[in-house]
Design brief:
It is elongated and about 75 Å long. The two termini are 32 Å apart. The protein has ten helices and no strands. Helix 1 runs antiparallel to helix 2. It has two domains: 59 residues; 129 residues, Multiheme cytochrome fold (Orthogonal Bundle), CATH 1.10.3820. With 205 residues, it is mostly helical.
Length: 205
């Protein structure tokens, strides 16, 4: 009825009300049942609130609109609307080859077992640069862009596997010896430096 956000807010309000009651009138916790309720109100419910809040924020941080809300990332969001199929992110975004609501996360997430944790930690450094320090002139991915992000979706797809060019270099692609985006095949990515010279499609965000 409330939805995840509404439920979390209701839980936070309930926790605050119970905590205030037990802190202002500690005498009401005289019995064993009341002590158990007080323990839940002061320890268990706050822990649930923190866990729920972190989960909600993690999901929000995967949204495209969250990523491009930073001033430094806005040009990258605009590049998703470039009217040129050679722009790989734009072609994927405009043709819904990736979920548009989580476009940045879909293409930039590390799909290894601890990948999401590493992604969030790197994201924290970017938030630090946005609000405390200053973002670099050119934003680069630490360690470069891995083919794993491309192969996560494309490997096993008929038009990808059956392509004779891909077949000839598949081992090099899987081992990351040859990059999908810097090998001369798909080398036009965001290219934000050229945005003033390109045509856009649809409503640019």
């Amino acid at each position: 009825m409330f939805g995840p956000t509404g439920t979390l807010i209701a839980l936070i309000v309930l926790t605050m009300v119970l905590a205030i009651v037990f802190l202002v009138r500690p005498a009401v916790t005289a019995g064993p049942r009341e002590k158990t309720l007080a323990f839940m109100a002061l320890f268990i419910l706050p822990a649930l609130c923190v866990g729920g809040g972190m989960s909600a924020h993690m999901q929000r941080s995967e949204q495209t609109r969250f990523c491009i809300s930073c001033h430094a990332m806005m040009p990258y969001g605009q590049s998703l609307y470039v009217d040129d199929p050679k722009y790989i992110p734009a072609a994927h975004f405009q043709n819904h080859r990736i979920p548009v609501e989580t476009a940045c996360y879909a293409c930039h997430a590390d799909y290894t077992i601890y990948g999401p944790l590493k992604d969030k930690l790197q994201g924290i450094t970017r938030i630090y640069m946005q609000y405390v320090s200053s973002p670099p002139q050119t934003i680069r991915i630490r360690g470069g862009y891995s083919n794993l992000q491309c192969l996560h979706c494309h490997e096993g797809a008929r038009n990808f596997d059956a392509n004779p060019v891909h077949q000839a270099i598949m081992d090099s692609l899987k081992s990351n010896q040859m990059s999908c985006i810097s090998s001369g095949c798909h080398d036009t990515v965001h290219n934000v430096a050229a945005l003033s010279q390109v045509k856009f499609w649809g409503p640019v965000q």
